[in-house]
Design goal:
The chain is α/β, with parallel strands linked by helices and 338 residues long. The protein has 2 domains: 181 residues, Alpha-Beta Complex (Quinone Oxidoreductase, Chain A, domain 1); 140 residues, Rossmann fold (3-Layer(aba) Sandwich), CATH 3.40.50.720. Helices cover 29% and strands 28% of the residues. It contains 10 helices and 16 strands. The strands form 3 sheets. Strands 3, 5, 6, 7, 8, 15 and 16 form a 7-stranded mixed beta sheet that branches. Helix 7 links the parallel strand 12 and strand 13.
Length: 338
């Protein structure tokens, strides 16, 4: 089957950074679904896994952790889906990715595709929706039923993939007052259209900008970019007994001592945790995606496609990686069909 993979970990401007390959078609066993991949989207995790290093793979490594497609086979232990079901999912970072014609994925981390979306627009949602949902509702403990209505959340990286769905979850479900960060007119416009009450520039004086809005401190902070840079600002702006959650790894020690006087909480969110460790609650991601699909079909949430880059091939995936590494992508980058 066709796939896009790599043997060497190279800068994205080199043709061999991602190449078109032919690999064996897998077979479904256990609780796995075999999915015919119709569309994919690209995330920063793809660029991080592909980042240059000395390792050389003996067989092509396939990346890609966002897909929508159709179930074409199911393992003997599958109970949640059947052949012919349209699905969407992010998959597991410990297994081959979805940048291939056919892909194996455990049914417990798969949802039925929103009926109102085509495969292209559905593929933009899984990884970011899981990440934002777990960060806001599981880690920070915000109520998705609106019990914290009127409280404030500051979202760093509001126009990115996770920020795009995070704004919607915070506004539409949690009923929070949303302050999102964006540094360009087009990204600020995108964040506002998704429901942000205020947009501030993360390159500017954040406390001063919030104070101008009449906001001294916030109840919650979601850091969807640059933990090293943003944590001290988040610690300054968080209310006593508030909570901060980040999804971005740090390159230097995080000064958590800044939170001590406020008794504020600090959380990590990594959406692959459940699948990586085979946690007993893996099926929560199936339930989560099922609810996201329901909310999309009800018109509560919208897809976050920012740019469609054409067919699934090495050249277009290299282009997607380059756009993400530039840090200027708005919403999600999607590709459709082989």
């Amino acid at each position: 089957m066709k796939a896009v993979g790599l043997y060497r970990y190279l800068p994205i401007d080199q043709d061999e950074a991602l190449i078109d390959v032919d690999i064996p078609k897998p077979e479904a066993t256990g609780r796995d679904l075999l999915v015919k991949v119709e569309a994919i989207s690209v995330n920063p995790v793809d660029t991080k896994v592909r980042a240059p290093k000395d390792t050389v793979e003996k067989a092509p490594r396939v990346l890609g952790w966002d897909a929508a497609g159709t179930v074409v086979a199911a393992g003997p232990d599958v109970t949640l889906f059947k052949v012919g079901d349209p699905v969407f999912y992010a998959g597991s970072i410990t297994r081959p990715g979805a940048n291939s014609e056919f892909h194996l994925v455990d049914e417990r981390i798969v949802g039925r595709k929103p009926a109102s979306l085509d495969f292209t627009h559905a593929a933009a949602l899984p990884l970011t929706a899981i990440t934002a949902w777990e960060a806001l509702f599981d880690r920070l403990g915000v109520s998705p039923q609106g019990a914290h209505e009127g409280r404030t959340v500051l979202i760093f990286g509001g126009a990115g993939g996770v920020g795009s769905i995070g704004i919607q979850l915070a506004k539409q479900l949690a009923k929070l007052k949303v302050i999102a960060t964006a540094s360009r007119p087009e990204s600020a416009k995108w964040a506002s259209e998704l429901g942000a009450d205020h947009v501030v520039d993360h390159f500017g004086d954040m406390p001063a900008q919030l104070k101008k809005l009449g906001i001294e401190q916030v109840d919650f902070v979601l850091m969807f970019n640059d933990t090293d840079k943003n944590f001290p600002i988040a610690a300054e702006l968080i209310k006593p007994q508030g909570g901060i959650c980040t999804i971005v790894e740090n390159s230097k020690p995080v000064p958590v001592e800044l939170l001590k006087a406020k008794s504020a909480a600090f959380h990590w969110e990594f959406m692959f945790t459940r699948s990586m460790f085979g946690t007993p609650d893996m099926i929560e991601q199936h339930k989560l995606l099922t609810e996201v699909a329901r909310l999309v079909d009800a018109g509560t949430l919208r897809t976050t496609v920012g740019q469609h880059l054409g067919a699934i091939n090495a050249a277009n995936l290299r282009r997607a990686h380059a756009l993400l590494e530039e840090g200027r992508a708005i919403g999600k980058l999607v590709l459709t069909g082989f």
